[in-house]
Write a structure and sequence with these properties.
Keywords: Membrane, Transmembrane, Transmembrane helix. By secondary structure, the protein is an alpha+beta fold. The chain has two domains: 98 residues, no CATH class; 64 residues. It is 60% helix and 9% strand. The chain is built from seven helices and five strands, in the order αβββαααββααα. The protein has a five-stranded antiparallel beta sheet with strand order 4-3-2-1-5, with no helix packed on it. The longest helix is centred in the C-terminal third of the chain and has 30 residues.
């Protein structure tokens, strides 16, 4: 007798995905809206791959930075970053084709990044705040201790600023969570 796999209900945390172009339909399901063709893609049980693909810009940037760490010419590093982004974009578009579609989706319920982050446990948010602060400070300290110049110095500063922005987002999420609990 074969054992059939059971369908598991989508956890509340998976359903709380948010960000740019992510909305919730009338059934409460997360829907990615492709603004170019006005098609909504239902993300019911595919939120984890979606989160990975939604980081495609970041992955392209990291690829360029890693390439630069191997002392490749700057133009080649930029090309590798663009290639990594293009690959992720291609895979993202293929991924969207596997999702249920809602033609002419009209966005109504939007959950922004702050609201999405506020759904995490308060302890996780606080830990992320401290880690982003530490990352930002340590990147700057390391850059000057190592005597970085030029592009590497600017990259360190750019990543430190990005970490500081993420810290601010986490602080806002924490405050949002605290203000909306009671």
């Amino acid at each position: 007798m074969a054992i059939k796999g059971r369908k598991t209900a989508m956890s509340a945390e998976d359903n709380k995905i948010g960000g740019l172009n992510v909305y919730h339909d009338e059934k409460g399901r997360p829907v990615y809206l492709n603004r170019m063709n006005h098609v909504g893609y239902v993300l019911t049980d595919k939120t984890k791959p979606f989160r990975t693909y939604s980081s495609r810009f970041f992955i392209g940037g990291i690829a360029a930075i890693f390439a630069y760490m191997f002392e490749l010419p700057l133009i080649m590093c930029i090309f590798l970053g663009i290639a990594a982004y293009a690959l992720m974009e291609f895979k993202f578009r293929k991924f969207l084709q596997t999702l249920p579609q809602i033609p002419n989706f009209k966005p109504v319920n939007h959950m922004g990044t702050i609201q999405s982050e506020a759904n995490l446990d308060a302890k996780k948010i606080v830990i992320k705040i401290f880690l982003f602060i530490a990352l930002s400070v340590l990147l700057i300290i390391n850059a000057y201790q190592q005597g970085y110049e030029g592009v590497i110095l600017y990259l360190n500063w750019a990543i430190a600023v990005a970490a500081a922005i993420m810290c601010i987002i986490e602080i806002r999420a924490f405050l949002f969570k605290k203000n909306n609990v009671g």
